Amino acid sequence: MNNLSSGQIAELFGLQKSKLRYYINKGLLSPRVDEENGYYLFDESDIYRLYQLIIFRKIGFSISDIKASQAVDDLMPLLHKSKQMLQANIDELISLQKLTNKIIDSHDSSQLDDVYFVAHADRYFKKLPQDMVTNGEINYLSAIKQKQFKIDQPYFIQSNEAQVDVCYASQVSDYDHVYLAGNYACINFLVADEVALDLKISQFLEDPLFQLTQSKDKQILVYENVTRSLAYNSGLVYTVEVCV
Q: What pLDDT does residue 139 have?
């Protein structure tokens, strides 16, 4: 085949000519130089080498990896290593995609400040030890040692006006609070602080429906909806649930 100029080969692969010069300066390409005008000329082996270089860069090889690969004939060990790295990247992207979908689905499932109803099975909650909670504030470094505690969703269970327990989801074999199966009225509040949250909860519980259906000692379940909160910068989203 005829030799190609820098401009022609750049057009062939959709590259900037500066990128070609970069690869040449790094010693990854060694095209012939036209003695008359000093222009680079690329033959078929140069085109193959550039194609390999482009593919390897897309795979994730570094410049130093590619340069080292040119000194050996069998590239399979390097390719197997890259296959593992690509799979790890794919797994991470899938995980991030699931998280993004979860945030969007949580946001779209209901409007803020609108009541919706959910049917729940029995749920069990365990109180965090007292040394992990100070004035209602969680010591996360200590709390995370509890295997079942999830940093993205602590539960605040209000047994009565004077008692609020910080809990995590547990099992029937070990619990301090149980929420029996039933229909629950739920609402999501976006608030900047606890004062605003307490006001929102009070207003929510003043609904005549709850005045008729709940006893004074009825438990209220409040938890930080961290997943949904990721869609906002102005505060945290809290979910409040009351059995009806």
A: 78
What distance in Å separates the CA atoms of residue 41 and residue 27, rounded to the nearest whole number?
15
Q: Which residue has the tokens 């209220």?
A: 220
User: Locate tokens 């890259």: which residue?
Assistant: 82
Query: 131: which 2 tokens?
Result: 């040394």
Model pTM above 0.85: no
Distance between CA 85 and CA 59 in Å, rounded?
9
Q: How far apart are CA 89 and CA 95, in angstroms?
A: 10
| Digit-coded pLDDT (tens) for 36-60 | 888 999 999 999 999 999 999 998 8
8 token code pair: 């022609």
* Nearest-angstrom CA–CA distance, 237 and 239: 7
Write out the two tokens for 168: 């995590």
